[in-house]
Every structure is written in structure tokens, then in C-alpha cells.
């Protein structure tokens, strides 16, 4: 059996690190017919429907758009959607999809989206756990500050994320078993830095590949503090896109912060 090691260079990864490593398998794992569902919070269509209501006809920016799992259903609803990502490999796949031309695509770092300096949006969305790909306090803070700058008065910043339970994420777990493939997760935690360093291991009859990742998790309360420092106030926090109430036993959250509407006409 051939082994392929893709773990080199994971310390202080560049912005495009996750996307470039995972682009070849992202849709196979997480796409519409993917082997690992990302529907705990809501299906892609449920997210699109929810965003359509919250945007109220205004332009939308998705940070970390990737291959378009969320952006494409939004575009198919006729929404004005811009997708930003730092990974050329992810964006190449998005451009090549049937509805890819409906999305304005920007290749940039979501912590410092300077190419959008003359734009403004009604909604800025960061999909499932993507925010945690920003692996330092400084980059996370910069991202939220840039979001606040890009939002129109009364605009909304929306994040989907897991609620940190470090002991739950540490160790080895089997994500998927099929006749021709097994997916295994291995993760270790640095609690002082709130970092999860892990890799997904894909085992097939002919080879084994390793796909590393690094996440920096923060709690909903920490999100609220950074948002408040940048003039954003919490409007809603749900457990999912069905708007089930968030509680202290919830594993995930959909959080929505809003800018002041004081400068509206």
C-alpha cells in the first residue's frame, strides 16, 4: 500500500493552506452527494433560504467560499453573492461549476480582504467552522474588524461554528466506513492556545493519504466580545438554521450580529 504524507508545513500555515490541501477531496467529502454530511446546522439549501431572508435583497459576501457548497444555492435563488477565498485550487473548482459564473469571485485573505475596500454588504457569512481556519487571535480579530467595515448600516455578520468542547475533539475517531474507503480523524489539543492540530486520514485498498488541518476555536462568548469591540451587537443565536433555541448543551451555533442602523436614511 502506498502512503502519501501531506502534513509538512503545518506550522504557521499560509492563508490558503487548508483550501490547497483539501481542494481535491472537498466535494467528494462534503458536497451535495458527499460522504460526510455538514447538515448538523442545516443543509446548504436551508442555509441559502435563511440567508435570503436575512439579506432582504441586499448583496452578500461569503468568506471562505471554497468550492461553493453554500454560495451556489444562494446564487441559484437569484441572490447577489460575492465569494472570497485564499485558495486558487478551491476557486478554480467553483469557477468550473455550472452556476459558478453567477458568483463574483475574489481571491484574497479573509482576515484582510483589502480588494473589497470599495464594497459594502447586507450580509457577511462565514460557513461551517471556516472562521476557525484563522489560527491566531490577531487574524480572527482582524477578520471581524474587516467585516464590520464592509457591512452596511443594519447589516448582519453570520457565523456557523461548533461550540468548543476540546475533550470531544481530541483523539482518534472514525468518520466514515465504506467498502472501498475509510476516513479517520486524528486530533490533538493545545488548550492554552485554543488550537486543534489534526489530520484526516483516507485509507483505500491502494493508498493512504493524510490531509492536515489546524483550527483555532473560540467560544460564542469570545465571538460576542470581539464583535462588540467592533460595533456589532448580537441579534440572534440559534442552535441551527431551523431556529431551534441555543442552550448550554448545544454542540453548534448560528450566531448573527448586527451593525447599528443609526446612519440609515
Distance linking N and C termini: 66 Å
Q: What is the CATH architecture term of the largest domain?
A: 3-Layer(aba) Sandwich
CATH top level assignment of the largest domain: Alpha Beta
The protein's oligomeric status is: single chain
Task: Give a short summary of the structure.
26% of the residues lie in helices and 32% in strands.
Please tell me about this protein's structure:
- The chain is an alpha/beta fold and about 260 residues long.
- It has seven helices and twelve strands.
- The chain has a seven-stranded mixed β-sheet with strand order 4-3-2-5-6-12-11. A five-stranded mixed β-sheet has the order 1-10-9-8-7.
- The longest helix has 14 residues, at about 15-30.
- The relative contact order is 0.16.
Give structural attributes.
N-terminal domain of TfIIb, 5-stranded mixed β-sheet, disordered N terminus, 7-stranded mixed β-sheet, 12 strands, 7 helices, alpha/beta, 265 residues, Rossmann fold
Q: SSE layout and pairings?
A:
Blueprint lengths: L1 E3 L12 H14 L13 H12 L4 E4 L7 H6 L4 E5 L2 H9 L7 E4 L13 E6 L10 H14 E12 L3 H4 L1 E8 L2 E10 L4 E9 L3 E10 L3 H10 L3 E6 L13 E7 L7
Parallel strand pairs: 1-10, 2-3, 2-5, 3-4, 5-6
Antiparallel strand pairs: 6-12, 7-8, 8-9, 9-10, 11-12
Helix pairs in contact: 1-4
Amino acid at each position: 500500500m502506498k502512503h502519501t504524507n501531506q502534513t509538512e508545513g503545518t506550522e504557521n500555515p499560509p492563508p490558503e493552506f487548508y483550501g490547497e490541501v483539501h481542494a481535491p477531496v472537498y466535494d467528494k467529502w462534503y458536497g451535495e452527494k458527499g460522504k460526510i454530511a455538514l447538515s448538523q446546522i442545516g443543509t446548504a439549501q436551508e442555509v441559502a433560504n435563511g440567508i435570503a431572508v436575512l439579506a432582504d435583497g441586499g448583496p452578500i459576501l461569503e468568506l471562505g467560499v471554497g468550492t461553493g457548497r453554500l454560495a451556489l444555492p444562494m446564487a441559484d435563488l437569484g441572490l447577489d453573492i460575492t465569494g472570497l477565498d485564499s485558495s486558487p485550487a478551491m476557486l478554480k473548482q467553483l469557477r468550473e461549476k455550472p452556476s459558478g459564473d453567477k458568483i463574483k469571485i475574489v481571491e484574497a485573505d479573509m482576515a484582510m480582504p483589502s480588494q473589497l475596500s470599495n464594497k459594502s454588504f447586507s450580509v457577511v457569512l462565514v460557513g461551517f467552522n471556516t472562521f476557525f481556519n484563522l489560527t491566531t487571535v490577531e487574524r480572527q480579530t482582524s477578520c471581524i474588524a474587516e467585516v464590520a467595515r464592509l457591512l452596511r448600516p443594519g447589516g448582519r455578520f453570520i457565523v456557523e461554528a461548533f461550540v468548543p468542547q476540546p475533550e470531544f475533539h481530541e483523539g482518534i475517531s472514525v468518520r466514515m466506513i465504506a467498502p472501498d474507503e475509510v476516513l479517520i480523524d486524528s486530533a490533538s489539543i493545545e488548550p492554552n492556545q485554543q488550537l486543534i492540530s489534526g489530520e484526516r486520514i483516507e485509507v483505500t485498498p491502494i493508498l493512504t493519504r493524510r490531509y492536515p488541518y489546524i483550527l483555532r476555536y473560540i467560544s460564542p462568548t469570545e465571538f460576542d466580545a470581539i464583535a462588540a469591540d467592533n460595533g456589532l451587537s448580537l441579534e440572534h443565536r440559534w442552535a441551527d438554521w431551523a431556529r431551534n433555541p441555543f442552550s448550554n448543551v448545544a454542540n453548534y451555533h448560528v450566531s448573527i450580529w448586527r451593525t447599528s442602523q443609526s446612519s440609515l436614511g
